Amino acid sequence: MSQLIPDDVGLFLRWLLAFAMLSARYLLFAGAAYLLYYVIKRQDWLFMKIQQQFPKRKQVLTEITYSFLSFVIFALMIVAMRVISQHGVLETKIYRHFSEHSALYYVLSTVFIIFFHDTYFYWIHRLMHQPFLYERIHKVHHLSKDPTPWAAFAFHPAEAFLEFAFIPIIIFTLPLHYTSLIILGLWQVIFNVLGHLGYELFPRKMVQHPFFKWLNTSTNHNMHHKFVRCNYGLYFNIWDRILNTNHNKYYETYDEVTARRDEGFKRMKLKEPATGNIA
User: Fold this and answer.
1) What is the pTM of this model?
2) Which of 42, 124, 164, 193 is packed most tightly, with the most Cβ within 10 A?
3) Cβ count within 10 A of residue 1
4) Of 9, 5, 30, 8, which Cα lies nearest the Cα of 20?
5) What pLDDT sits at residue 87?
6) How far is CA 91 from the centre of its chain?
7) Do the Cβ atoms of 129 and 229 come closer than 8 Å?
8) φ, ψ dihedrals at 185, nearest 5°
9) What is the mean pLDDT of residues 61-69?
10) Is the four-CA dihedral 232, 125, 123, 2 of positive or negative sign?
11) Closest Cα partner for 232 from 206, 195, 200?
12) In the beta sheet, which residues pair with residue 95?
């Protein structure tokens, strides 16, 4: 993110630009998803919704408020990293020219930081579910029992700090092309919005596929919000599978949700009314 901001701007303007870019990305992805699924197709696609109800407006406003507060924290940390680098305390290892490292290194380093973030998130997330931290910090995110896309970055300020802390860890230790961070940022917001979408988009048999079963799903994270002590992963379902922290009815629920969705689309093609209750 900081690589997209000119070097000669002051700290406040740097913070403001970082905040604006983070907010714009959030509004674009979360806003588009919310508009489509919760406004335009709210009634038509009810059969797709994981939990067959819609959250109250108060919850949506809370999600948006805490997300923007998270961007305040994220932008401050971006500025802090700039100050640390400028004053020679630590030098970032971000490079601008592809010629500095091989194409293979670029690909592998980009893939690595995605998997590193997923691992970092899983363990930080498990930490946040310890009773002391859950009640004081992480409970903010769980105010959404049935989240919307706006909940993607709805964190307590302390959790927002921890969520972003993996960025200085990697940029001060690992040589990365700045576009790798852009790719990570896009990957992050897409999966965050997808995880909080409240609708399952992946194919019905995906969780049984030898390769794609390792990806996380909207159903998985939606169940985390509903049941709390399960399904801690972000992008992938690797650690939850290895450590047996998936909800014991995850696969059953995924099958039920995707079967209902597929049946709903069949009915739409036949112009039959879809079933469902709007709460």
Assistant:
1) 0.92
2) 193
3) 19
4) 5
5) 80
6) 28
7) yes
8) -60, -40
9) 98
10) positive
11) 195
12) 177
